[in-house]
Design goal:
single chain, 157 residues, alpha+beta, two-stranded antiparallel sheet, two-stranded parallel ribbon, 40% helix
Length: 157
């Protein structure tokens, strides 16, 4: 079968992590769906918190909606060409870096982008197993070995 007759699908992983880099919630969406639609699901799971999001979640109407309905303060860095641009608060940048590092670890060490599943069910299962493995290593590092939870490359023995 030639490559031109194959169909490829794209998906996005949306996740909420603690500032320590532990997954609290995640979901998959088709790549064609805009990121801000994931925030509707967040309203059902979280409340009374601050969420540091990337520029893909930039929407003043959604931001106001989250705050009014469930008291979630959505902090997204503004683009430099936006009207009321101000650099993001330093501490928020630092926490975002931890989250970006977690996603880099998923991509590099757990090869989350490499997935040869034959069905969507298999795809979801493989993604879930990689996130579960990462979370298990974090748990072992913290509560069994007393190490930094995000030191994922170290031997477990």
């Amino acid at each position: 079968m030639s490559l031109s007759k194959l169909t490829f699908y794209g998906y996005k992983l949306h996740a909420v992590c603690s500032i320590n880099g532990v997954f609290q919630s995640f979901d998959l969406s088709p790549a064609s769906v805009h990121d801000i639609h994931y925030l509707q699901d967040i309203k059902l799971q979280l409340s009374d918190c601050v969420i540091l999001a990337d520029k893909g979640y930039l929407s003043s109407t959604i931001q106001l909606d989250l705050f009014n309905e469930v008291n979630i303060q959505l902090e997204t860095p503004k683009r430099k060409n936006q009207k009321d641009y101000k650099p993001q608060f330093y501490q928020f940048k630092k926490f975002r870096k931890r989250i970006e590092t977690l996603f880099s670890q998923l991509c590099d060490q757990f090869m989350i982008r490499r997935n040869y599943a034959k069905s969507f069910k298999g795809f979801k299962t493989r993604i879930l197993s990689k996130i579960t493995t990462l979370t298990t290593i974090q748990y072992l590092n913290r509560f069994v070995f007393g190490r930094n939870i995000n030191n994922l490359k170290i031997n477990l023995t």
